[in-house]
Amino acid sequence: MPIKYVRAFIYLLFVAALLPAPGRAQSMNASIGGTVMDPTGAAVPNVQLTLTSVATGALSRATSGPDGAYTFQNLRPGIYELKASASGFRDYIQRGIELTVKATMRQDVQLQLGTALQTVEVTANASPLNFDNAEHKEGITPATLADLPLLVSGLPRSSASFAIINPGVNTGSTASPYSMRVNGGLRSGDEAVMDGASMQEGFMSQSGMVAIFQDWPLTPDMISEIKILTSAYEPQYGSTTSSVVIAVTKSGTNEFHGGGYDYMRNTWLNARPWNAHNRVDNGVEVPDTARPRDIEHDAGAFIGGPFKVGSHGVPGFWSGRKKSYFYVNYEAFRIHGGVTRPTLSIPSMKERIGDFSDWVDASGNLIPIYDPATTRALDPTKPLSPTNVIRDQFMGCDGHTPNVICPSDPRLANSLAKQWFQFLPNPTSPGPTLNYLVPNPVPDTILSQTNYWLITGDQYIGDKDHVKISIYYQGAPLKYASELPTALANESNSAPQYTNIERANWDHTFSSNVLNHTTFGYLDRDEGYGCVDAAYVDKLPQIPGVAMYNVPPQIYLGGFTSMGACGAGRNA
């Protein structure tokens, strides 16, 4: 072996040793094999077989062995045509063979006596039964992805949603694919794979539906096929307690294809929630305000095809032995409002001035409000304890008005609560609780105004090499929304998130039984959080003695919506 090849081999081993373990390659290629027979069922050796991709024209060649057996490995998912030729027999052609992700299919060939000028043509798919191992997998075909609609409801469409229609899959008490459980496995215990590499989210140790459905939704305009491995899968899939969800991105073909789309929800297309009423401003009902504002768009455009201009190939991408293809999809998700408006519990106008006469139970009985300053032992001869304690009920200035704090009480006059009440809106309905209908729904997603790009490139060099590069980009701006006014917000805001997912796959065929598949994957998620109310840290009172704070303190009263409860801030 020449010295230069030895050095190259040693260099590749060194680079491979430096690669981190989580970057293991996971091939999504398919295979097909079978036996070539004559009309009597006897094996026919030395038959020349070719498998042609309908989409790209890529060729794979094989020769049947002494036992008539043949196999094609390292095949990209797609539609293929199989041709078999042998001296003394008619040419055999089978069209419409559909290979899905990781499919192991069998197609026996029976040749008929005759000349090569005569052809036996079959139009049928190969058997989907797996004769080679016990691996069980369910697939979401390209036809399903293209024909079945997906709901746009608070999130971009995700092809992984179709996983829940497979046998053995349930979502617990919810209808969300995020809660998918497979064959009794744990929620979030699955693994997600995109173009051959895991979508593990680094130190967050998240994968599966968390990644492929929630964090990086892959729409049907990006994905050609979804496959779910549920049992007896290969050791390369080790980061799962139940299943592996595999996604393969789209590729260009011999023909140029393009299109545009807009999946939308609109306030006027939605039904009015059963308990929603028109807004009332200054005693006047505002018509057509009962429906929550909900305007959502999942819009985009795509184009794909060969690297050719007219009939001329682009230099470096198209030649006699080299064929290259591209696919580009741009998608934008926009949402204003949401499907429902929550109803919150905030102090009533009477309660804000110390009048709790409206604080009653479900039967209308007054719930006593006690004066903490009157706390004393029920039995003065015994220590104060939870079972030996008594307080006086607030009874107003006249001593006969239950649950009313006298306005002249200095504790009420000097209360810091007024600092929060200045930002608190007025209730929209009577009653001590569930009395504030949020004016506009708040999108419950960090992907409210997100842009997506998917760019893929495929190159075939001869009939032995195939390289695919895919780049997925997600750009999400700062999320800054809350149900209560900003000063009292208990939500966290997400920092701008700019995510890149890159994949590189190389398939090389050394011989009919010596193959190589190499995958490189990179995932970068830039994620950070803060508090929506952080700007009001110096506009509201702070707890005395707190060593460090960067947000207002949390105010929580039993039975009411909390104020300033963001968990991303510091106030301790």
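Above is the first protein from milestone M3; the second protein from the same milestone is given next.
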Amino acid sequence: MLTPMDFLPIVHRELSVRARAPAAYALRLGSASGLVFVWTLLVTIPHSVSPALLGHSTFVAMAVLVLSSCLASGVFLTADCLSLEKREGTLGLLFLTRLRSYDVVIGKLAATSIESIFALLALFPVLGLPLMMGGVTGAEFLRIFVLLISTLIFSLGIGLFVSSLVDNARQALGRTLMTIVAFSVVGPLMSWIYSFLWPATQAFDFVLWTSPGFACVKAFGWGGESDFWRSLAVILLLGIAGVVGACINLQHSVRVGDVLPAPIQSDQAKSRNIVTLFGGDNPYQELVVRQPSLVRVWTRVFAVIAACWIISLLLVGGGRTSPLLTCVLLLYGLHQLLKILMSIEATRRFIEDTESGALELVILTDLGVKAIVCGHYTAVRTALSKPAVHLSVLNIVFLLVIGVFGAGIRLPGDLRAFVSCVLLGGILLLVLDLRALLWCGMWKALATKRQQRAVGATLLLVMIFPWFCIFLCFTGILFQAASLTSIVTMVSLWFAASAAIDLLVAAHAKRQITEHFRELVALSYTATKRTLLQVH
């Protein structure tokens, strides 16, 4: 008879350790408290609607917020779990025992997902508060409950699958993000464009089933219930397929011997060749430039999304608002995507050099702290300057279309002026956000030993306020004012506060890096080596 130690021993060990970890309790308390704060904010703002409608709209807003968190779980939890083992060389040691590939994959899934599952379970009682307010049926709550669990499995499964294919943290995070975006956004977008151009046919409706957002819409009863269950089944199957694919890829890596710490050896070899780079203006900048960035990923995604954006822009006119709204959403999505890629790129080099020990060697050379920091900053800023120009061009084109063809779009003159100012402000905020993300990412890369944690901390410090304002716009709280003047005032304050946060965070991060660089490197290096000793 199999004992728990014989069947999935890594799962048994990880569940025993993680279930009682202080971080698990803190995450559950923090998640539930945060959602309670959001619910309190939504219900205490004066509304001119019935309690039933308020309860339903509050439930929709909270469900969308939790769904977004579930989609992001794969990027921050499982995207780098297997690739990290490859870089540290511990994956080969695991397979010297009687462990199989599914033991390792399911064990890693349990280790990375247990805290997120606990947090999700802690959120369900809070999601039940709108149920007592009225306007929400038990069937809707049950559908959302099942959808959130399936979306979490979907995101974690994709992260595991991508992590089994690569051995680099930056590639793991970027590819996981792009895969989740492709399933969640690109398919429904293509289906919408096709149905708009040829409304009589429904040949591509099946691509909607891969999107958790589509399933969320159907879960609220907006459309056929059968579409919800089809979409739910597809999402769950994709997550399970990701876990199975990770097992197969890991088993193949073992057979071909691709579980040795070759990446670490390669990074150390590169660090030994630093002396050969001293002919340039900044050797560390050349080191950062030598490795490929996520600009290639951006170019491919931008080509697809920009094509859809141009098609939607051509469909604007005749009083139709859906193409105009699609243009706004696509442009906003591209802005946020570039900011996420900036946070990944800003944290990559310092994290990799800390893991390989190269950063310690660089400090011992004749390079000063200023040269290292300026070299990294200049290399990343130069690499992502072209994507920023691409987005600025789209903003200007959209601005010209609204200004020249505003009458055909049937937008009032005051509203056209307001949208034009928002587009110009978006360009300014894009520059300030990217600068703040770059400095903050470099700081968090030195203060944090894992890239996904550094990326998450960077995004929270810089983007939490504007994202929360967007969430309030989604719920309609910011637009409770009756006049356009009040809306303009609130949006202006929003932009000013976001710009102030960018400047303050960038200044603080820059000061921390320039004044405490060696201390941060020593702390991160010690923490990384302590983690390696615990793993071994």
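Note on the second protein: The two ends are 30 Å apart (CA to CA).
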